[in-house]
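Follow-up to my post from last week.
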Amino acid sequence: MKLTSEQKKDIADQQAQENKTKRVTSLELEKILYEAIPALDHGFVRVIDYMGDDTSIVQSARVSYGKGTKKVSTDEGLIKYLMRHWHSTPFEMCEIKYHVKLPIFIARQWIRHRTANVNEYSARYSILDKEFYLPAEENLAAQSSSNRQGRGDVLAGEQAKEVLELLKNDAERTYNNYEMMLNERFDGSTIDENKKGLARELARMNLTLNTYTQWYWKTDLLNLMNFLRLRADSHAQYEIRVYADIMLDTVKRWVPITYDAFMDYRVGGTEVSAKGKVIIQKLIKGENVDIDNSDLSKREWNELMIAFDLKDKLI
Amino acid sequence: MKLTSEQKKDIADQQAQENKTKRVTSLELEKILYEAIPALDHGFVRVIDYMGDDTSIVQSARVSYGKGTKKVSTDEGLIKYLMRHWHSTPFEMCEIKYHVKLPIFIARQWIRHRTANVNEYSARYSILDKEFYLPAEENLAAQSSSNRQGRGDVLAGEQAKEVLELLKNDAERTYNNYEMMLNERFDGSTIDENKKGLARELARMNLTLNTYTQWYWKTDLLNLMNFLRLRADSHAQYEIRVYADIMLDTVKRWVPITYDAFMDYRVGGTEVSAKGKVIIQKLIKGENVDIDNSDLSKREWNELMIAFDLKDKLI
Amino acid sequence: MKLTSEQKKDIADQQAQENKTKRVTSLELEKILYEAIPALDHGFVRVIDYMGDDTSIVQSARVSYGKGTKKVSTDEGLIKYLMRHWHSTPFEMCEIKYHVKLPIFIARQWIRHRTANVNEYSARYSILDKEFYLPAEENLAAQSSSNRQGRGDVLAGEQAKEVLELLKNDAERTYNNYEMMLNERFDGSTIDENKKGLARELARMNLTLNTYTQWYWKTDLLNLMNFLRLRADSHAQYEIRVYADIMLDTVKRWVPITYDAFMDYRVGGTEVSAKGKVIIQKLIKGENVDIDNSDLSKREWNELMIAFDLKDKLI
Amino acid sequence: MKLTSEQKKDIADQQAQENKTKRVTSLELEKILYEAIPALDHGFVRVIDYMGDDTSIVQSARVSYGKGTKKVSTDEGLIKYLMRHWHSTPFEMCEIKYHVKLPIFIARQWIRHRTANVNEYSARYSILDKEFYLPAEENLAAQSSSNRQGRGDVLAGEQAKEVLELLKNDAERTYNNYEMMLNERFDGSTIDENKKGLARELARMNLTLNTYTQWYWKTDLLNLMNFLRLRADSHAQYEIRVYADIMLDTVKRWVPITYDAFMDYRVGGTEVSAKGKVIIQKLIKGENVDIDNSDLSKREWNELMIAFDLKDKLI
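User reply:
Got it. Predicted complex:
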């Protein structure tokens, strides 16, 4: 991640602000406000603004005139209760805004979460940065043979090099041709004074999907947790998980009580179907269980056994 | 609007907060933060929290590393442009949270605006305040004969008194019976130690729609403007307009540049249909116009003439 | 539930339609289309329109050119998989529209589900029907002493009669005064030719919350299931559960495969937190478990034991 | 646009369905149901399903038991009124579902409209089709010098050829390398039996943004009109306008009365700001107007004059 000196100055200027406010503040989050936290090879996550903290959840759940309850322990009990029983609206009362730089193919996955506000850098107006995501060798996974959507083993040395070479060359060549068509380089200089440039809204179509873009993305805490639950999960694509993990850490700084409840009930928890419950109940009673009488598919059976760490029951 | 001494203390405690923050702040809005601004006879509007200011709109529209542009005049030009051309997402980057006390029949109108976050005081858990909206005499309008949805002249003295008497008596009687069914008074005291109380979720059904409720309501600036455009309009029901007018004033304090653009393009502006444009063009050329050749209905014709203050053309 | 003869005719006319369509249809749902299914004492649920069936979920999940897969068993496997892994967007591809008549206090609970389209009968334009919800005696529950939000035992005979008397009298009196203020009866007749009526948008505030209103409510299958999961649950208020149960039955007719998966994974299933999983694992291994070492609150502990039907572990 | 014979058969099979339904149907829309209407060089728009017609808007606006009103003229008057006064919820009562094939850079523009349901073809699971958008020569516009976002003149012959050559070669080369990395061709055949393929979720990053993707996209009529208002506008990017124009035609078939109102009030209409109204009023009175006294920027002034076709007033 390279920032220009102007970008660094812009960030430092904002960090130097010392405003007074009557609003609730999150000391731990303030410490990293505006900071560009590196993600992948050229991306970053920056927290730009936030509204509310743990007490705001309690305050709105109680529709109170004051701030949370008097005691932290009472706040904690209520937040855990709300999380456990899937209450949603109190968690919507906190809001956070990020500035994110990320590869386009990840941006396309991210944008599927619709309950958020987004302003993306416009390649109709401006030239995109000359930066492409190239995976580290240890992340060059083969297609999984068991999971149609996932990754399998890492590619062996020689093939890995070939892949990286292809990715690098194609990204550079298409970007160079993008500049050629625009008749303008990424630094703003003109290539051929006697030529017109192709419209930016057209030229961009030549770029590869690992080109970096950036956006402002703002959402409330409930929808952020919905995002993180899916994207910080071990089944999520590695490249989006890198961003989700960084954001998870910002949640920990911002609303630590909610973070703990989220980790316990959502991230670390599991769901058991009606049929699955019957199996677990039998297991507790020490009865024999058998997939044939379970009405579960093989896949479902294994998912249940893995959830409760019953590896000897896998089939 | 009466606040208990405990409520007053809760408000004062929050107003006494002096937190430091690196976030952008709105000085004018900070001045009235948490304050209960009276609305109707027992309601209020309180600004509880906010995120962003005018510069945040510019910042996200440009996806910039810093804060807005360097010059206020440039920010202003961009905000006006965005408003004029119905750009929406940059205005979503500012967020505000209100605590509102309002009659239930107004809450039902308000809640139709769905893109907002709401936590309402729960009458399943708690007993509602013993407060009902009673219109001032000058607002006791008769049903309009021309507009099926609106109000006509104010009712004459004697009838007005009768109406107010009915409203007051019915609200009080149904509230008293609500307490009776609950076997509990609004101050928490029990009525008859030997009786059980009816479940709160049931007893509330006996209350009239002018009973006050309250909620936390949070929305972004774009959706707030959509709300205000409809509800601060002269055709909106008077009782919701009172709230909208107060909120309009908070917008002026919070994001003054956006407020000006909003007043010019949305509130003070008008829309002209394709057919209407033909009429206006003829009028500018000094040609005769006539409803018969206009393809406009009488109603539409009059709406157009009123929009451009052409009262002699009304039919 | 009383329908006027005109309303009955309107319904019969629509049911008599025999249109040809190339769209997928749900035979079982067609059988009850437009029918007013009674709910509570004066309410109803009517299915007005729908889009898609089980095959539509598969079709969009596969982004296929044709209709679902070739085999029902494959469709079923995919729908179960999607439900189990919380895939959301394919279930949004089915849409349903209801016409519902319901008491206002239930409408207020219902409307908290925002991802839906609603058109409510306007009491600014029109006079509301003279119908109020009066609970059956067996539903006149006392406030629960253990659950602040719920119901306890049913009220004893004498008190129940008193409550019903109060509810009935107050609803009738306030409605009569509503007519008086409007100077118009619910059947449209004028009361006093020499008087003006109070504006409808004002007079309605005198009605009690058990007055019936009605609306068109349209939503997609995903959001309908979110609604039903909460509102057909045993902890939901009885009066909204009556509606949810009827709608659950329409889902069964409409998309039977999805219905089964929903009942298994959502309605009949349970969630286990990270801490709860540790307890369950110990129980399966036959180890002793004890709330003191569990890091669970008493409430949480009991919720877990109830979920797995371990009544001897309740404390 | 090439369809495989299997795809053609799938489409024909669906078109051959003759189901009976009591739902309202749109005869004109049924005629083109499932048909792949070509868009750009390899894309298409297919209407897959719909709910409601013009009468549904009236029905829900009135919360009626029957179907619309008795007379088409009454329905028309109401729909025009609703459109003119920005009523929104009745138009949400109609729903439509499309299957669209489109270049990725257009998909990214499209997806900014969030109030819709989407299922996109997954390049994590499956290999994308070997199809790229290459503009026709007459659409190879230069960057506009006046409008930072738009297009200017078409590129001259030689340069146009060069650009097309670059686009074509880069798309083909990156796609070939995509296959190489996957170790699998788009037709499913393996390239080298001794090699593993790179995970699909990674390999896709090598594709250019003019590669075609496809999705199911479902939205209600209100949000569709919001989409079309922006995307069928002359300022929209040509490539998305092609799709919007096709969809506009489907709206005309589906809900012809609403279509007419939409064209009159939204597409063909204009907005006038408070300041602009003053200018128009003066022009109607035959008074002199002058930008210096107008408080309008030059840009705003010209936009106003163009809206009313006053070309001699441009400055």
